[in-house]
Model the fold of this input.
Amino acid sequence: MPSPYKKESRGDPYDTSMENLRNAFASKRYHPPRPWRSKEEALMIRRFALRRWTCRDHNRPSARVWAKQLDVTHVWLLKLVRKFEADPAEVRRLQSYGDPTCAELDRAREYTRRMRERGELRSPRRRVSLAIEPAMEQFVRERFAQGWSRSRLERELSLDRKIVKRILQRV
Done:
């Protein structure tokens, strides 16, 4: 649909987007998003990615297989490789830690799990179970009756959209 405003009164879409971002970052309501995993686990994943990148074995697994084993996306793994190619200082820093071990990765993942339970990290929606306790269902219904929107329920209670829809259909 064409814009209802005259062409000479409209700004460049990119400039307008950048101005909106500047305003959002300057707002006192802005806060940076919580990370997906602990710094320790992210470091371990970078070390394993470096290990794969420097491996010259003919049986080296593909990026997709390696990413699946590390429980990350292959796109992020390839992004790390591009960073390694661009920044040799980062490569030297990661190599100074020595070879990563599975035990270190397990400890880092356990620390990430505890941080996620405390609410310090983002919680991936795909990991939210579909079973919900009756007390939570009642709480959601009460908040909806108070005027909370579905999107607010999802956001503030960290619930999946389908769960909120299912709870509110029973009202």
